[in-house]
Batch of 2 targets.
Target 1
Amino acid sequence: MALIKAFAGALGGTFADQWLDIITVGQFGEHVALMPGVYQETNQGRGSNTKHSAAVISNGSRIYVPENTAAFIFDQSGIESIITESGGYEYRTGGTESVFAGDGIGKSIFGQIGERFKYGGEPVANKRVAFVNLREIRGLKFGTPAPLMYHDKFYDTDLDIRARTQSRSRLARTPQTRVHGSHDSASIWRASASKASSSLRNRANSLSSTRRTA
């Protein structure tokens, strides 16, 4: 029974994943910086690509990147591609074979069925798309949940200190990052993230000094 179920899963999943995908992102919330890609399965009730496998992107699929948004395509080994300019892009870099992308029936159908059957009917591919909000995020509130006890040695007294503030943040788009960036552009993003982290640490230290001065 298990072998029959695995074969049925491999057969059904292979045919379901032959459809080319349309991947985009929903509307970012006020304080949301990162969202997963969304498969557009139907449009006004039209569309049949509703049984595709999770984390599978077929060759020839379209990825739509809205304005002020970046897209990361990654798999189990890390970041594969980065898209920093808005527009529609066709994915053809290591996706799952599809007859609609001209990959041939042998690889797209029989090859996939055999590969999935070995893993109990599940697809081996694990590719995902994440979208990053490049707009400025405002109104990020920070405050102490309770008074902070501070002992002033000069006056030999205890002080109750409260802190409340608002900040804004924005993920910078470096000019070197381009569409379908390789390891170089990924390193640029990591360096930018490292700089942002250092800036946040400096800001936190500054706030701590301000509290001690108060």
Target 2
Amino acid sequence: MISSRSAPRAVGDGETFATGRFRFRFLQTPQMPHGWDAALLFEETQSVLFCSDLLHQNGDVGRFHQTLVDNRDGPTPGYLPYTPRTGAMLKRLGELRPKVLAAMHGSAYLGDGEQALADAAAMMREVLARSIESTGGAGYRSASNPARFVAIRLSAPVHEVVAKLVARSRFGLDQPQRDRATLEFYSSSTAFACAAATKLIFEETP
């Protein structure tokens, strides 16, 4: 466990740190709710899961399902990505048995957090995963970056996809240039990145 008086350092997945009488567990959740570097915090002494945008609700209480539909059908269909690992990550969060789900947008949930997260997983699978499958990923690609799109198509972790994209498309670059190329694939939707991602799909999709 990391003390609040320790020297600053990176926190690993599952590691805990204390802030006085509270103890937090750091949880890496790539692509959930958004980017590859996403993470959540679980406060263990009171069983509070800080959900960031995971349970985003527009308007009245209990509108998570409708918010998923609104985002899917609106100008930001990739707002909450659904990847091959989303279900497992939600199950892991549920196994913490949180008593409070503290959403950044909308109402907090007080009660059986494990069941609430299982319900959320079912809703996300219904609204987001089926939409991706029915469009061959096209709807997801329109609002996301190429590395995440390829990760869904190949059922591979995003960091592995990015490594392949950088290795194949920017061969011979020095380390600073490779770092910039990696950042581009994680964060951009440039024509270059999309072309390289499309090539990888056709090479590796059966």
